[in-house]
Amino acid sequence: MTVALRAATAADLDAIHALHARALRGLGKAFYDAAVIEAFIAEVGTFDPVLIEDGTYFVVERDGALVGSGGWSARMPAYAAHAPNGQATARGRPKIRSVFVDPDATRSGVGRALMQRIERAIVDAGHGTSALTATLMGVPFYRALGYRGDEPVVLAMPGGRRFLALAMEKRLGSPSRLAA
Q: Which residues in the chain come in under a pLDDT of 50?
């Protein structure tokens, strides 16, 4: 089995979108109604392609197939427009974004490898903390990695649907701490 973690390119866009939809539909069904998942995919979106342009988005391939993706940015997330009370809008603060793992690749180290790469990039860019907005299915994973917080982030979608997530953050430390 060949596994590679690399910076995403524009050529990965279709595979990234497909991975995100598979992950939300497969892993999210225990936490969200199917109509909410579909509205989130269609109306909010799972990914901002500018992260690829910024060089802050990564993919994991296993035997040539995309099985994970994630990145970070200090830009305002596009989904913030769906948070009516100003949640998830901290400008200039590094925010982990769009971390997804294929349902067939969960618990295989893909997510952990992505998060280590993302956290290292955040520290290398001079930041000591990171924040994220966790889908409900991701909360246990992020807590296991040391993320804390349980402030609800409610994204409003057409038709009165709401997508619930949690704001979380973590102190990352110095570059030498993440070098391992």
A: 81-82, 86-89, 177-180
The residue type of 164 is L
Query: In this predicted model, what pLDDT tens digit does every residue of 74-124 receive, in sequence order?
Result: 876 665 544 555 444 455 679 999 999 999 999 999 999 999 999 999 999
Q: Is the CB of residue 58 less than 8 Å from the CB of residue 103?
A: no
Burial of 44 (0-12, 13-18, 19+ CB in 10 A): middle
Domain 3-178: CATH superfamily, name plus number: Gcn5-related N-acetyltransferase (GNAT) (3.40.630.30)
CA–CA distance from 87 to each of 76, 126, 151, 168 (Å)? 11, 24, 9, 12
Long-range contact set of residues 35-43: C-beta below 8 Å, sequence gap at least 24: 35/161, 36/157, 36/161, 36/162, 36/163, 39/157, 39/158, 39/159, 39/161, 39/163, 40/155, 40/157, 40/163, 43/82, 43/157, 43/158
Burial class (CB in 10 A: 0-12, 13-18, 19+), 71: buried
